[in-house]
Amino acid sequence: MTTIAKPSLTKADLTELLYDNVGVNKREAKDIVDGFFNQISETLVEGEPVRISGFGNFQLRDKAARPGRNPKTGDLIPISARRVVTFHASQKLKEAVEDPIEEV
């Protein structure tokens, strides 16, 4: 069985889905999608985690400075301390991904 690769789901796709399924106009749908992602970004920038029930959690993690290596030369290069965003899928999302619906 050959699987056809699907393109990524984009913000424009989400806007179109809102327009088609909810019935808001395209401008309102775009504002809703942009507002949703802006709120997630602002909350993370403030240092707070974001929990979306049934989907997952976005959390901040501080990574310590550490030595790294240039893969070409092997030279040691310092990697500075930084803050990164991590995502942990909810159990519902994990189960949905593990047991996808069969497509014909």
Automatic annotation (TrEMBL):
<dbReference type="InterPro" id="IPR005684">
    <property type="entry name" value="IHF_alpha"/>
</dbReference>
<comment type="similarity">
    <text>Belongs to the bacterial histone-like protein family.</text>
</comment>
<dbReference type="InterPro" id="IPR000119">
    <property type="entry name" value="Hist_DNA-bd"/>
</dbReference>
<dbReference type="InterPro" id="IPR020816">
    <property type="entry name" value="Histone-like_DNA-bd_CS"/>
</dbReference>
<keyword id="KW-0233">DNA recombination</keyword>
<dbReference type="GO" id="GO:0006355">
    <property type="term" value="P:regulation of DNA-templated transcription"/>
</dbReference>
<dbReference type="InterPro" id="IPR010992">
    <property type="entry name" value="IHF-like_DNA-bd_dom_sf"/>
</dbReference>
<keyword id="KW-0810">Translation regulation</keyword>
<keyword id="KW-0805">Transcription regulation</keyword>
<protein>
    <recommendedName>
        <fullName>Integration host factor subunit alpha</fullName>
    </recommendedName>
</protein>
<dbReference type="GO" id="GO:0003677">
    <property type="term" value="F:DNA binding"/>
</dbReference>
<keyword id="KW-0804">Transcription</keyword>
<keyword id="KW-0238">DNA-binding</keyword>
<dbReference type="GO" id="GO:0030527">
    <property type="term" value="F:structural constituent of chromatin"/>
</dbReference>
<dbReference type="GO" id="GO:0006310">
    <property type="term" value="P:DNA recombination"/>
</dbReference>
<comment type="function">
    <text>This protein is one of the two subunits of integration host factor, a specific DNA-binding protein that functions in genetic recombination as well as in transcriptional and translational control.</text>
</comment>
<dbReference type="GO" id="GO:0006417">
    <property type="term" value="P:regulation of translation"/>
</dbReference>
<dbReference type="GO" id="GO:0005829">
    <property type="term" value="C:cytosol"/>
</dbReference>
<dbReference type="Pfam" id="PF00216">
    <property type="entry name" value="Bac_DNA_binding"/>
</dbReference>
<dbReference type="GO" id="GO:0009893">
    <property type="term" value="P:positive regulation of metabolic process"/>
</dbReference>
<comment type="subunit">
    <text>Heterodimer of an alpha and a beta chain.</text>
</comment>
